[in-house]
Design a protein that fits this description.
About 65% of the residues lie in helices and about 0% in strands. The protein is an all-alpha fold. Helix 7 runs antiparallel to helix 8.
């Protein structure tokens, strides 16, 4: 396992589970149809947890170009590694969305609402207002990135010699909880993209795969779901640098 491969696999699994819950809750004749927003945000949080568990030991589990950009901007990650990480994340996002399409293909064929089909792959605003939608993504991503800066590596202390004992996969839980609270508190306006690999890559998959009644991919909105998170990440990085200086 290399860092770049870990980013690809971790992001792919995260997107399979994340877009998978969107499919399960919204597509026609699934067992989870109409399960609701709580199921979506909890499962997305656990999808992030799963991706972090896989990639964490090898790459630090960025799984998101916004995270990679923020760490590079604060000097905590080498700029030379940014292209490889971002490419792996974007390809992983596409692979995960493609796997969801294959998994739920019979249900996609039964679904007649193009907005529902597109909603499995990518985000959309509840109220279309570009300035407000962009601000939503900036603020939500700022909260994510700024909090990530303060997540420390968890460990327990041994009673013999005060030797630190790692918490292993449990250390991925704080990130999942941050995603959960963002979804519950700030996700209702845009669907909280937070991540170009979560929105842009699956949106491209939506545009390419054959789905009956799928309609357009809403490219007018796509830039907000990708640029907003990047701006939010840079804002969080800037505040972090000021605090440290």
């Amino acid at each position: 396992m290399t860092p770049v491969l870990a980013e690809f696999i971790g992001t792919a699994v995260m997107l399979l589970l994340g877009t998978g819950v969107c499919a399960n809750v919204s597509l026609a004749r699934t067992k989870g149809n109409s399960a609701g927003w709580i199921v979506v945000i909890v499962t997305w949080a656990m999808a992030v947890f799963t991706g972090v568990v896989i990639a964490g030991p090898y790459s630090g589990a960025h799984l998101n170009p916004s995270v990679t950009l923020a760490f590079a901007a604060t000097g905590q990650f080498p700029w030379s590694d940014v292209p490889g990480y971002v490419l792996a994340q974007m390809l992983g996002g596409a692979a995960g969305a493609l796997a969801t399409w294959l998994f739920y293909r019979p249900h996609f064929d039964l679904e007649e609402n193009p907005d529902t089909i597109r909603g499995v792959f990518c985000t959309a605003p509840a109220v279309r207002n570009p300035a407000s939608n962009l601000l939503s993504e900036i603020i939500a991503t700022f909260v994510l990135i700024f909090t990530v800066f303060y997540i420390t590596e968890g460990h327990l202390a041994s009673t013999e010699g005060n030797v630190p004992i790692g918490l292993g996969s449990v250390g991925a839980l704080p990130v999942a909880l941050v995603i959960l609270v963002i979804g519950g508190a700030l996700g209702g306006t845009t669907g909280y993209s937070l991540n170009p690999a979560r929105d842009l890559s699956p949106r491209i998959v939506h545009a390419l795969v054959p789905i009956r009644h799928k309609g357009g991919s809403d490219w007018r909105y796509a830039w907000i779901a990708s640029v907003g998170p990047l701006l939010g990440a840079l804002l969080a990085a800037g505040v972090q640098v000021m605090i440290r200086s």
